[in-house]
Amino acid sequence: MNTPALPSETLGAGVVKRPTLLADGRELIYYDDPDTRLGAERAIDARDLDPRPATATMRRDVLTGDWISVAASRQNRAFMPPAEFDPLAPQTAANPSEIPSTYDVAVFENKSPSFGPALATAHGDAPAGDDAPRGLDDVDAPGLGRTRTAVGRCEVVCFSPEHEGSFGTLSVTRARTVIEAWADRTAALSALPGVQQVFPFENRGEAIGVTLPHPHGQIYSYPYITPRTANLLRQLETEGDDLFSRILEFEQNSERVIVAGEHWTAFVPFAARWPLEVHLLPNRHVADLAETNDAERTELAPLYLRLLRGIDALYDTPTPYIAAWHQAPVNRGRDSVRMHLQLTSPRRAADKLKFLAGSEAAMGAWIGDIAPETAAAKLRDAVESIPEVHA
């Protein structure tokens, strides 16, 4: 098998980045741990792959102003395959997976993306594609029956070559490598033409809808500002650009703090929607993960691992969750939108889930099942039962 040495770049904490391409032209990037046992050589992807699907089309909902991407190619994605056919494991003779070589952390373009892959430009001034968006004014324009090409990028972030696990099962060193990959991809994706917002996230557990048990997350790069962030920008106009600073001070003086470090604070928010909801904020203003410094990333790795392991300690079985890294848009609100994690779970008891019924799903009017202070006390006890996480 042909295994050439890939070009490399050393990032923070000694993480080494090695970019290459898959057989159909999709980008694949290896991120090697600082103490990796892997060499510079990586196998070539020699699969005979079908052409990449056409870029999805998105339609504007005139009642809300939201854009809905219609990505029919996603119907063919893998669903709970056995370990021997894990599409995120390193390739073997019997398993022609997405990643040719063994790895520490690997990031690649999704084969069935909700956005993209059309981001090439003829003159560098606008993304290519049939009727691609032409900036935020075009995205926000009114009118019935409006469609645009859903340009952007969707990437898969593999946390480990193991078949099962999640971010919380990683070592501190591996968690630090993933954080470095998130920051590096945030910077790269934010620079792509047509991208307005970058969103790293992890879905964990079948109750959330996970279709692969392999420890992984995703990064979506949108051609618009997402509805959640657009609403946040409106709130900042009302509440003031210092809103996140005031929220952090308010929560740090409350009984809802779960764990706090020199650079990060985790708490159950004052108006939590979900039975289990935690926000994790940097103590200084940063717009996205790319703006965090080495000290912040180094502290984040063990602190975030301890938080996740505490959440799992609440019950006898692992807790399903969505870990959503909210970042400022690429071109708006950079001085006021503070990057933060919102971790939510529908689990309201050991054997009970919260389902979004009429009021929440149809009207967006939430009813909390558990007082935030009660949830915070339980979470704090669970996190304190977890030993300090060290490298």
From TrEMBL:
Pathway: Carbohydrate metabolism; galactose metabolism. Its cofactor is Zn(2+). Coiled coil: none annotated. GO terms for molecular function: UDP-glucose:hexose-1-phosphate uridylyltransferase activity. The keyword Ion transport does not apply. The keyword Ion transport does not apply. It catalyses: alpha-D-galactose 1-phosphate + UDP-alpha-D-glucose = alpha-D-glucose 1-phosphate + UDP-alpha-D-galactose. Transmembrane segments: none annotated. It comes from the Bacteria. Its EC number is 2.7.7.12. Pfam families: GalP_UDP_tr_C (PF02744), GalP_UDP_transf (PF01087). It is an enzyme of class 2 (transferase). Keywords: Carbohydrate metabolism, Galactose metabolism, Metal-binding, Nucleotidyltransferase, Transferase, Zinc. Residues 86-225 form the Galactose-1-phosphate uridyl transferase N-terminal domain. Residues 252-390 form the Galactose-1-phosphate uridyl transferase C-terminal domain. Belongs to the galactose-1-phosphate uridylyltransferase type 1 family. This is Galactose-1-phosphate uridylyltransferase. The lineage of its organism: Bacteria, Bacillati, Actinomycetota, Actinomycetes, Micrococcales. The gene is galT.
